[in-house]
Amino acid sequence: MTTPPPVKRQRREEYRRELAAQQASGHGDAEVKLPQKKFFRQRAHANPFSDHQLEYPLSPAHMDWSSHYPAFVDADPSKTNLAGARKLTKDVEVVDIGCGFGGLLIGLAPLLPETLMVGKYYSVQDLGSHETYTYIIPGMEIRISVLEYVTSRIQALRAQQHRLKAAAASQNPEAATAEVNKAAEETNGGAQQAEDAGTMTSIIPGNYENVAGIRSNTMKFLTNFFGHHQLSKIFICFPDPHFKARKHKARIVSESLNAEYAYVLRPGGLLYTITDVEEYHYWVLRHFQYGTDEDGEAERKVGGIKDLWERVSDEELEADPCVQVMKFETEESKKVTRNGGNKYVAVFRRKPDPAWV
Amino acid sequence: MASFQHPFQCLEYVNRQANGQQDVLVASAGRKLYTYSAATGQRLDVWPQDVDSSESAATASTEGQTIPEESKNATEEQSEQKKAPKKSAKTKAPVWTNIPLMVVSRDSKHVAVVTSEDKCIRVFSLSEEGKLQQLSSRTMPKRPSSLTLTPDGQTLLCGDKFGDAYSLPLIPEGYVKRAEPKPRNVGIPAATPLTVHTKRNLETLEQQKRTAPNKPAPEEKEALNFEHQAILGHVSVLLDLISASVPGDSPDSPTRNYVLTADRDEHIRVSRGVPQVHVIEQYCLGHTSFVSKLCIPSWAPKVLVSGGGDGYLIVWNWRAGQIIQKISLNKAVQAQDVIVRGIWEVSLQQTAGPVNAILVALEGCPELLSFTIEGDNTLKPQGTIQLSGNVLDVTGITSKGTISVSVDTVREASSTEMWKSSPSASQTLIESFQVSSSPGTLTWSPADDSMTTEINAAGTTDLPASLDGKDKKTFDDCLYTLGNLRKMKFDD
């Protein structure tokens, strides 16, 4: 005789089953609701050293992005990658490492127009009549339950957008365009609030087709997903602080991992970090060999990883909308705001490779 | 009752003709190092001397001559303190049971080895008479899994089981004084009520704050007391680390140095050489299981041959990360679960010029595969050499145009755990083969030389045949480590 699983888990499983069934059936006529976080809770830590049952591509040229971004699949079916998967019309250039419940993805989705390459930023409105270019942004997450939440959240958002578009088109094409523009203005404010309430009422540029959650242990397998100099932005938001000293080796920022981030990030690209733990902030600076180490240790090394990174100035960060999203729209940042915590931001620019010695 | 002999775990030929000295063979078996004359097979030295009877040999000889008196005492004291509780009063033998890694310096004057349990890199000078003298011993933070030298021969590179790699000078210029432990926020938790919120976490934090001032400062992670640099890290087990040097294509373009690392998560990383190892140039991704061995032939530096647990050798244009060729090993050897134990490059002197070959051994397998590299940089299978026991290590005796293979004397051929029922009267520790080549083909035949006969006759140290299963397994695990690297399947 086996004991039945606890009630909480039963409810959770039931909820997820229903949700999956609903999403598979395309929701019928029912209103598309966003998933509820409480059914997807998972312990905050995952051991990055253990052999999780992970699926990861053999190499970046084997990665099947098409199932995650169906809207961006190249129309030509003969264009396939080494694993035989359909190619996308553009490469992935921005990645959120440890995307958690997906707040950053949702916040960034409408925000990254084409001209946002390096250093200078435009919002969607600035583009005027230019066609909007949307960055494809994967969020990498190791916790399976959390990832399921992100996936169903994005699916629900896409479905909602789909309906809104259909409704707008049937009513009045001009109104629909106006709606898009309005949505662009509301990106940071209204849309987000509406989303928190469970439904989206406006059309968002990109329709969330450009974001997706992917299960991965990036500490091990980042370079299986992304090739040399492929990325222009990496976000590491509120990483697991691993408070205990003997757990520090599990931190996602370290000198040796920074070499890998430098490999996938192109010269001029940016690596964003934010944390609410002051000690971690100094850890980050130390591991980029930057700044304010209280022991005065930071300047001890010549060369080293500092060859590859320079810290971005505060003035420049002020003007960067990504920093705003990072500071105020990720799930964790909202929690920190609620609890009156501090937020420490450090952004590093990838320098060109140094000359060979 | 006869005993087994400890097989040779590492075997290195040292060519000293440039120095005008006799060639030697350096080998490790059990916890000892041996040197032999490559001409006659006469044993020249054993290190450490009489370890089994004397208590002083290990500890006394671990401290090098180069240490100034003052710090010598300090180090001894510390090592004494550290070892004391671990070592039971009965066993005074060295703390290590085997010597799994060995490299010979390019000038043939030094030998560096790793002793396993004490995680120690020991560097020896090799005298004209083939005597070993320990110059330094440096204890690494984690157990080393690979050891090599940079192309200039001055710097040791050491990868460990935690995925980190360090560079350290071959000959340390004296000991760096251990930095005074810093009063780095001792006992003050990094968490604050602003960063932890749940009731339980807050309670723990309160408790930490209360007890912190009274608690003795946590032992600072012991700083290494010698010159070293952390050069790279994988979040995985580092299984091999090699350095490579590629001459420029034109006389103007300079030679470039690289460090290549292989890990348990299928990666081969190509980084720039010291001191720019943090600049990653390429990943060679193509293996579907751990990568246990990398080999870049000195005579074909643009080619990398790699192997591991997936049953394939992959030949790479490694600077471009491109696969040139995949060779299935399951076809070459009738065995399941094939793991590459070693890949060696040899360049053997023959009258008509050097014969170059790639030799490949599989874990727990009494066959040695040989290949040549063709003009298009593909591998061409050549003859397979059959041995009396599992292949452990291979070295090319370049001057004689032969290879010597160390074989497992203890276990049945093709098994990594089944011991022979009883030791045979004459135990074959090494076998030697000579090569003959006609265009496009290599043929290997047993070499009948006195070196081999003499070394086999002399034996190493006794390994009792009457051990119980657990002790046997301990010995098995020293020699055959690769089978444990397979990933476990479990639910998340």
From TrEMBL, chain A:
A GO cellular component annotation in the UniProt record: tRNA methyltransferase complex
Catalysed reaction, written as an equation: guanosine(46) in tRNA + S-adenosyl-L-methionine = N(7)-methylguanosine(46) in tRNA + S-adenosyl-L-homocysteine
Main subcellular location: nucleus
Pfam families to which the protein is assigned, alphabetical: Methyltransf_4 (PF02390)
Gene Ontology MF term list: tRNA (guanine(46)-N7)-methyltransferase activity; tRNA binding
Localization, UniProt: Nucleus
Top class in the EC scheme: transferase
EC number(s) on file: 2.1.1.33
InterPro entries xref list: SAM-dependent_MTases_sf, Trm8_euk, tRNA_(Gua-N-7)_MeTrfase_Trmb
Annotated transmembrane regions: none
Stretches for region Disordered: 1-32, 169-196
tRNA-binding listed as a keyword: yes
Keyword tRNA-binding annotated: yes
Role noted for this protein: Catalyzes the formation of N(7)-methylguanine at position 46 (m7G46) in tRNA.
Protein name per Swiss-Prot or TrEMBL: tRNA (guanine-N(7)-)-methyltransferase
The species this protein was found in: Penicillium atrosanguineum
Gene this chain is encoded by: TRM8
TrEMBL record, chain B:
UniProt record similarity statement: Belongs to the WD repeat TRM82 family.
Residue ranges with Basic and acidic residues bias: 69-83
Name used for this protein in its record: Transfer RNA methyltransferase 82
Region: Disordered, residue numbers: 47-91
Organism superkingdom: Eukaryota
Residue ranges, compositional bias (Low complexity): 54-63
Function: Required for the formation of N(7)-methylguanine at position 46 (m7G46) in tRNA. In the complex, it is required to stabilize and induce conformational changes of the catalytic subunit.
Gene Ontology cellular-component annotations: cytosol; nucleus; tRNA methyltransferase complex
InterPro entries: Trm82, WD40/YVTN_repeat-like_dom_sf, WD40_repeat_dom_sf, WD40_rpt
Protein's cellular compartments: Nucleus
UniProt keyword annotations, A-Z: Nucleus, Repeat, tRNA processing, WD repeat
Entry's Gene Ontology BP terms: tRNA (guanine-N7)-methylation
Pathway assignment: tRNA modification; N(7)-methylguanine-tRNA biosynthesis
Chief location: nucleus
Lineage: Eukaryota, Fungi, Dikarya, Ascomycota, Pezizomycotina
Pfam families xref list: WD40
Species annotation: Penicillium atrosanguineum
SUPFAM superfamilies xrefs: WD40 repeat-like
